[in-house]
Design brief:
- This protein is α/β, with parallel strands linked by helices.
- It folds into 2 domains: 186 residues, NAD(P)-binding Rossmann-like Domain (Rossmann fold); 132 residues, 2-Layer Sandwich (Dihydrodipicolinate Reductase, domain 2), CATH 3.30.360.
- The protein is 39% helix and 20% strand.
- Helix 5 packs antiparallel against helix 9.
- The longest helix is centred in the last third of the chain and has 20 residues.
- It is globular, with a radius of gyration of 21 Å.
- It starts with 12 loop residues before the first strand and ends in a 13-residue tail after the last helix.
Length: 371
Amino acid sequence: MSGLAPGYQQEPLPVVLVGAGNMGRNWIRTVGSSPDARVVGIVDLDLELAGRVAREEALDVVLGSSVSEVAARSGAVAVVNVTVPAAHRPVNEEALFTGLPVLCEKPIAPTLVDALQQAALAEVAGGLLMVSQSRRFFTELTRLRAVADRLGRVGAITTEFYKAPHFGGFRDRMEQPLLVDMAIHQFDMARYLLRADPVTVSCSSWNPAWSWYDGDASATATFAFDDGARYTFTGSWCAPGRETSWNGSWRVSAEHGTAVWDGDGAPEADGIDTLPDVPAGPEEIAGSLAEFVRCLRSGETPQSEIHRNIPSLAMVEAAVLSADTGERVDIPRLLEQRYAEAVRTERRTDVRERLEQWGSVAHVRGAEALR
């Protein structure tokens, strides 16, 4: 069952947006152009900012600093959480225990421990918590996946990612800006293409002498998957000239041929006569929103529901650990260690008991969790 009132099976879903910063504005505009949802409330601790954003975006909405209060006053039936990662849990927790499903910006949490705890929290609350892993939603990525399926068993996938963005702010001060803030997209896309589980990673990271970042802006990581395939990501966030797409540049080497994708246009391939047709749909965060609403209406589980998204976050945390230690990291073992820590440190009795009931992190690592 979708859990939505019958009137919302066709009508746009009224949603509360939490977080009125720059990304919040992007979401407001995306929701505003979508047939699937409409913003009826904005939540932010800075009410002056929330009011200014509402005026500048020509929105007549309820404003406040409490998710549950704004939802009650506005009649919202869902929440879009666009706060910083450290604030994701309190917002998600309040929303879920108010009975509101949540679409949350990536990453779902700063750490695997926090992510595992939130997965259990969603189970206790009985609500949907979906991660906006927005770069899954590209028509040409879907086509590349269909091409890879036709080419048979995949032996290796590589991604080159080279950009030179001057963000300013917190990214310039991060210890691992590329791996933590960007590479999760490509790691998740690799999982999407392979339909397999990552088992080990070897990663090195460094910071070129000309870098404007405090932390390591360059990295190379090689993952082994449980089907025998290898995935290699190499890239830099301080690489001026000849920049790749924000999706990266991809090569898929498979049993019956090879496919390449520049991250923007249609993929090219040998080993097949014609490129497969795939359905076109909304892309990036608009695609996340469309899937969120569709699954709420149908009762299906989104591909980036929190349990299904955790292996992507595990790839990031394992890559960072490998870069820090210089050693190969066993990802299932790391997940079990983080699961034990999640049980030990969870503050809510009901969530801790639910984690204990899992018995193992395999609860979120089965084949179904990867699709």
